[in-house]
Structures are given as C-alpha cells and as structure tokens.
Design goal:
Layout (H helix, E strand, L loop, with lengths): L9 E4 L14 H13 L5 E4 L7 H14 L8 E4 L18 E5 L2 H12 L5 E3 L3 H32 L3 H8 L23 H10 L6 H27 L8 E5 L15 H10 L3 E5 L7 E2 L2 E2 L6 H6 L3 E4 L8 H7 L3 E3 L8 E2 L1
Parallel strand pairs: 1-2, 2-3, 4-5, 6-7, 6-10, 10-11, 11-12
Antiparallel strand pairs: 3-4, 8-9
The structure holds nicotinamide-adenine-dinucleotide (NAD).
Nicotinamide-adenine-dinucleotide binds next to helix 1.
Length: about 350
C-alpha cells in the first residue's frame, strides 16, 4: 500500500438515504452500492461514502460489506472515508469547488488518502478526526437548520395572533453584527435533507434509550406548517365571506424550494391534500414543474401567471421563484397569502 496520499482508483458512493415507511433509516441503497463497490475493489483503492447518514455507518455498515465482498482489509489494503455532500441546489455562489469539503477516514491513513483526492477537486478540505465526526458534522448542519426553522415557524404562529409583524422583528434582529443568524418562517420544510436527515440521528439516539428531543420537536413543528397554512387560507377566505369548499385556490411554487425543480418532500403536497379534502378547487402555476399530481390526480396549471391569477379566489405563494413577477402577483391576486414575505400586498405567515 502506498504511504503517500497520491492518486488512487476512487469509488464515491452517493446514493439516496431516505426514511422507511415507519420513519427509520433506509440504508438499502448504501448496502447495495457498498456490495457493488466491494466486488470492484482492488488493493490501493479509495472508497468514500458521501450519502448523509447517522454516525457509525461508514465503519459499521459499509466497512464490513466492502471487506466481505473484496476479501481486503480497511486501512491495510484499501482506504475508506466519509465525506458529506454539501451541495445546495440552486445556489449560484457556492458549488463543489468553493464549498469546504469535510473528510473523515476510518483510519488516519484513510483520511490522508481521501484528503488528497478531494484536494484535486475542492479549494479547501477540512479533516475530521474520523469518519464518525464527519458523519456527525453533516447531521449537525442539517439539524441546526431544521431546529432554527422550527423556532421561527413557532414564533410566527403566535406573532400572527398577537398582531406582530414577525418578519419585521427578524429584520431588526438581523442587524446585530454578532451572535444572531436570521431564519425565516415558511410553509414547511422540504427536500430530501432537512425533513429526513434529523430522523437518522433520532433513530441512533433512541438506541441509547432516550429521545433526541430538539430534532423530534423540530420535525413536529415544521411538519405541522402545511396544516397551519391551510387554516390561514380558510380564515382568509372566511373573512371575505367565502368557504374553502368550491373556492378556486392557486398555489404558486410547488417545488420544495425556490428556483429548483425538485419536488421531493415538498410541503405543497400535504397542503394540497388538506385543501382538496376541504373541497377546494385547486390549480397551480410553477415553471419548474411542468406537470404536478397529488396522489395520482393531476392538478391543472394555467398557461401564464396572469391567466392563473385571473381565475383564482385566493393565491398562496409557497416558493418565491425569482421568475415570478411580484408586481403582477401584487396587483392581480384577489386574495393573497404570502408564506415567504416577499410581496407588498399579501398577508404574511
Ligand atoms: N442532492 C443534494 O443536493 C444533496 C445535498 C446534500 C446531501 N445529499 C445526500 O446525498 C445522498 C444522495 O442524494 P441525491 O439527491 O444525490 O440522490 P438521488 O436520488 O439523486 O440519487 C443519486 C443516485 O443514486 C442512484 N441509486 C439509487 N439507488 C441506488 C442503489 N440501490 N444502488 C446504486 N445506486 C443507486 C440513483 O440512480 C442516482 O443516480 C443522500 O444521502 C442525500 O441526503 C444530497
């Protein structure tokens, strides 16, 4: 085995790590990919797991599969490390090269080999003590977002009842040059990371005999947001003498975040289910989703934003795609619930 951390044949595993129907981690794709990698493995190779997962996966799950399939030994015959994927879809400023890359090997030699590999691709590589610390770092990043989004979502709900413009409070608080980072309320968290990854940590902590309360509370609060939005829609319609049943409701932005086409775990889906169950006449407009179905039922979409707004009793702005003309939305919405606080005329969350 080479002592220096020069170039190696490298296998990077970056497969989905979803939750099973019962909310526990589904590592079947990781196991299957590790099996394939093990059969391909040759002495001197480097294997890196990039999939987000609970601490211990690289060492306790991937390592034994690789060793069994290849007959080789980690740290002696081949290198094994964890390096979290940190891609932020739609982010124009930070990509693979200029986002620091965390690397944690199963042994120090594994860390060196993985560091040498990523230094060819990324401007900055950060070494963790081991694979476990690197796995934990990724979950910390996602749990941090989940918890802080839940915090502002919970505050937003009671601020509405108190008649406080919470976004204005956030704007003021964010002027503090130290010790504060702004997070903003929204219709619920989506994507395959924030709503899913904290569940991996909860599962691991539960094995110790107690719950990971912050992560579970964040999941409960953020998971409740679509129901809260549905309630606000009903209240707004009611104020104008309209029932939800039969109301023409337009959803603007059904992807899980602005300026991406990813629909995974989008909060628009549970919201649509709730509105349909109350008899709403649903439509959507989203240039990033040419077609959209709710439980196999297609939701109609208008040809243009103006046409979509013209036929709606109420508009719910869920994702503030930059291509939306906010002035047109301001002027042509009969009623507007703005879950992102970007319009002038809409009622904010
Ligand atoms: N995409 C992101 O922006 C992002 C950001 C941070 C972390 N992650 C993490 O990276 C991992 C992958 O996410 P993704 O969004 O790229 O996933 P994805 O759904 O796009 O799938 C990635 C690839 O895995 C392949 N695949 C699926 N099942 C497989 C199997 N059983 N065996 C072999 N290959 C299989 C798919 O064909 C696909 O090419 C997840 O753990 C995710 O949490 C992703």
């Amino acid at each position: 085995m080479e002592q220096d951390a020069g170039p190696h044949e490298v296998i990077v595993i970056c497969v989905p790590t979803p939750l099973s129907a019962d909310g526990t981690p589904d590592l079947s794709a990781v196991r299957s990919a590790a099996g394939t990698a093990g059969r391909l493995l040759r002495p001197g190779n480097l294997v890196v797991l990039e999939s987000t997962t609970y601490p211990g996966t690289t060492d306790e799950i991937v390592r034994p599969i690789l060793e069994k399939e290849s007959g080789l030994t980690t740290g002696i015959d081949f290198y094994l490390a964890f390096s979290p994927e940190r891609i932020d879809p739609g982010n124009q400023a930070f990509g693979l090269r200029n986002t620091p890359k965390i690397v944690g090997g199963v042994t120090p030699q594994c860390t060196s080999a993985a560091t040498a590999f990523y230094e060819m691709i990324c401007d900055q590589v950060v070494s963790a003590k081991s694979a476990r610390e690197a796995e934990m770092a990724k979950l910390l990043e996602n749990i941090y977002r989940h918890v802080n989004i839940a915090l502002v979502n919970e505050i937003a709900m009671f601020c509405h009842e108190f008649g406080i413009d919470f976004r204005d409070s956030i704007r003021c608080a964010a002027t503090k040059p130290f010790g504060f980072q702004p997070f903003y309320p929204g219709p619920g968290v989506g994507g395959h990371c924030i709503p899913v990854d904290p569940g991996y940590m909860s599962y691991k902590v539960r094995a110790l005999g107690y719950p990971f309360r912050f992560a579970e509370l964040a999941a409960e609060i953020n998971g409740r947001m679509p129901r809260y939005v549905a309630g606000r829609v009903a209240a707004l319609l009611n104020e104008h003498g309209k029932p939800v049943k039969g109301a023409r409701v337009l959803l603007l932005g059904v992807t899980y975040k602005a300026d991406v086409s990813d629909l995974r775990e989008t909060p628009a889906l549970p919201l649509a289910r709730l509105l349909l169950a109350r008899g709403a006449n649903l439509a959507y407009f989203d240039p990033y989703a040419p077609s959209w179905t709710v439980d196999s039922t297609p939701v109609p979409s208008a040809a243009s934003l103006s046409e979509a707004l013209a036929t709606a009793d109420i508009v719910i702005l869920l994702q503030a795609h930059t291509c939306y003309d906010l002035e047109v939305i301001n002027q042509r919405s009969a009623l507007l619930l703005d879950t992102r606080g970007v319009t002038r005329s809409g009622e904010s969350l």
